Each structure stands twice: as C-alpha cells, then as structure tokens.
Amino acid sequence: MISKLKKKFVFINMISIVIILSFTFGAVYISTNNRLTRESNDMLQKTIEQENEIHKNQMDVKDQNTNTPPQPQILSFAVQLDKNNNITNVYYNNMDKVDMDTLITLVYSTLDDSNTTGLIQTESFRFLKHVNQNGMKIAFADRSLEINTLKSLLKTFILVGIGSLTAFFIVSLYLASWAVKPIKKSLEQQRQFVADASHELKTPLTVILANTDIVLSHKDDTITNQLKWINYIKTEAERMTTLVNDLLFLAKTDANKNEVIFSKINFSDTVWSCVLPFESVAFEQEKTIDSCIASDVFIHGDNSRLKQLIIILIDNAIKYSNETDIINVTLIINVDNASLSINNTGEPIPKEQILNIFERFYRVDESRARKKDGYGLGLSIAKSIVETHHGKITVRSSESEGTNFTVSFPLIKNK
C-alpha cells in the first residue's frame, strides 16, 4: 500500500509539473511568436513606405558605426509593379540583392495569393501588398531570423524541460518518501494497536470461557457453590469493559469525536476532589499522599476529563511506588500556567523508554509491569486529554528524585 501511495504521489506530482511547464513554455512560445510576427509586419510596413534613398541612408549609418556590433535585423525588400504586374523597380532594405528568378517566383506566388498579407515559398517569406498610383508595391520580409529564433527557443524548452523533469522526478521521489513516513508510521501503529488490543482482549475472554465451561459442567449445582467461578467471570468482564471503554475513548480522540465541554473551572477544587479518595487507597498500601495545592487556580477545561487525567496520574504514582513511599501532589501557578506535578519515589523509568511511555499498550520492564493490572492505555489517554486542553505533559525520572509527571495548562488571569 505504501509503495502504491508513493508511486501515485510521484505520478501526480510529475503530471502537475508537466502541465505547469507546458503552460509556461507554451505561453512564452506564443508570446515570442507574436512579438516576432509583429516586428516582421512592422518591417513590411516600413519597407512599403521607404524608397531608394532609404537604403542609401541606412548604408551611411552602418559606415558611421563600424565599431558597433551589428544588431540582428529582419531582412526585407520591396518590388514595384505596374498595372500589368510587370516589375518596374526593386527596393532593397538591409539585405543583398535577390536573384531575378527568385524575385519573379516570389512576386507571382504573392499575386496568386488573394490575401493582402501572408506567408509564401514554404513560409520562408512574409509579404504585404499595397496598391498605389503606379500599380502595386509588394514588400517581402525574410523569416530566417524569426524561424531560427523559434527553433532555438524550442531546443531550449526541450533541454530545460528534460532537465527540469529529471530534477523534479528525483525531488518527487524524496518528497514521496518523506510525505508517506507519517502514514507509514500511522499504519504500523494501527496494526500494532489492533494486535495489542486483540491480545489484551484474548486473556479475559479466555478466562470467561474457561469459567463458563466449569459452571456449565456442574449444571445441577447451586449458584452459591458456583459463586467463585461466577465472580471470576464478572471480574474479567469488568476488566474487559474497562479496556473497551478506553479503546473507544482513544478511537474517538483520533477521530476528533470526543465531546469536550470547556468552561471556567477551579482547577484547585478539581485536584482536591481527586486526591482525597486516593488517601485511603494509599493508606491501605502503607503509603502517604502529601498534597500542596494552591487555592483558586482557574483554567478553561472539561472538569470530567481533567478528573480522569488526575486519577490516571495519581493511580500510576501509587501503583508504581514502593511501600512506605510518599506520593507528592503539587499544584502551583507558574507565570501564566497552572502546573500540576505528581511525584513518586518508586523504581525510575529507564531514560531510553521515557519517550515511549505515552504509546498505547506500551510496557516498561517486567519489574514495573508485574505490579500493574492495567493495559498500558492510561498514559495515552492522559496525553490525549492534555493535548485536547492545549496543555503540555512532561516526565522526569531518576534514582534520586523518583518519577515526576508535570502537566501545565494555560491560566485564566482574570478570575
């Protein structure tokens, strides 16, 4: 799929470049052709108006400017015909004399053409007819300069086009690889997510099926005697419900379909409402929660989502701390942010794994994993909530300081 996507990207990019170059080169070619035609017609008009002395004057000007390089000119001449279409005079303008056979051929080709102006003799000359009192005067302009200019322009377009397409092709290959990297990563994460979710769902389903089989094998037994197996089924069903709800939350977050109701809330009260229920939990595990929460810290947010965030972080802190450890919950005002820190002094997270702990289903080492009964989705959900609230979450972990999660949100200054 990724390979096809890259090829499609390169194909679309190259088609776009071809269209752009075609329009650009076409516009330049048409513009140049129109300019040369206009200059040629102007020269024909001037040649019609000029007489013998004009040719002499031009020769004098050339003699006076022998040190100046001659500029490319449109070669032209005119032929005066009498009323019987006989050649009576020839006026040469900035070009050598034309032999009589060529002259006669040009004149008769022009007379055979009913148009006043046009191209003759395999389009090598442009002509202009003008009827005067002596008969007809026909001006001819050599198109050699015009044809050579257009041919040179076409060659340039071909060379530039080939070079440009080659360069754009190479750049497109690079851009295609760069553009599909996030897609490739997303697909790999999706595949891994599905595999991990399937694996996590498999365990409770296996337990439920096994206990169901035990219950069914004792059909005549009472519910009281089967209570142990029924409780196992209920416990695993509840764990599976939690997992499914977490997966749905993350899926809705990815699709931006999670309903978040923002309002002005007292973040201090929200933190307190989450800390107090955990104090008994910590006490049962011979641990202590030490709180230092600034009062009346106001932010914009969804109170229920923020509670979910705080509960996840405090639950993790208790779960991964050692017996008799202290869990510190601190809320302070830091410049224009409300900063919530939750610290525990349990075994630190290895440095190389800190960047991965917010990935879904990510597990650190076994020494930490053995104490948890979750699925590795909590921190992913926490990060999603923080990002939804335009906040920032960071983590530091060391042997001396323990593990510290810090969450910051924009502060409402005017209460």
From TrEMBL:
Pfam families: HATPase_c, HisKA. The keyword Transmembrane applies. It comes from the Bacteria. PROSITE patterns: HIS_KIN (PS50109). Keywords: Kinase, Membrane, Phosphoprotein, Transferase, Transmembrane, Transmembrane helix, Two-component regulatory system. It is an enzyme of class 2 (transferase). The chain crosses the membrane at residues 9-30, 157-180. Residues 196-413 form the Histidine kinase domain. Its EC number is 2.7.13.3. GO terms for molecular function: kinase activity. SUPFAM superfamilies: ATPase domain of HSP90 chaperone/DNA topoisomerase II/histidine kinase (SSF55874), Homodimeric domain of signal transducing histidine kinase (SSF47384). It catalyses: ATP + protein L-histidine = ADP + protein N-phospho-L-histidine. Its main location: membrane. Gene3D superfamilies: 1.10.287.130, Histidine kinase-like ATPase, C-terminal domain. The keyword Transferase applies. It is found in: Membrane. This is histidine kinase.
